[in-house]
Write a structure and sequence with these properties.
Length: 96
Amino acid sequence: MSARDIIVRPLVTEKTMKFQDSFNKVTFEVAKNANKVSVAQAIKEIYNIKVEGVNIVNVHPKKKRMGRYEGTTSAYKKAIVTLPEGASIDIFNSEK
C-alpha cells in the first residue's frame, strides 16, 4: 500500500486548526487498515518530516435525519500526528 493510499486527506476544522497552532499536531483522515507505524512512514515519505507520535481514532457513524428519511454518516479513521518542534505541514498548499 502506497503512502498516498494511507493518507486520504487532511481534516480541516476549527478544532484541528487550534491543535495545529497550539500543540503542533496535524489531523488526517487515513485508510481503514492503516496503523500508527504505516501512518508515520507515509508522513515521512510525503512531507519529509519525521513524526514524534501518532494517535489513531476510529470515528463511528452518527444517525442523521432529513425529514422522515433516516441515514448515517460514514465511519472513518483519523490520525493525529505530533510533529517535532519547529516542523510544520502546510496542508492548504501541499501537493497531493
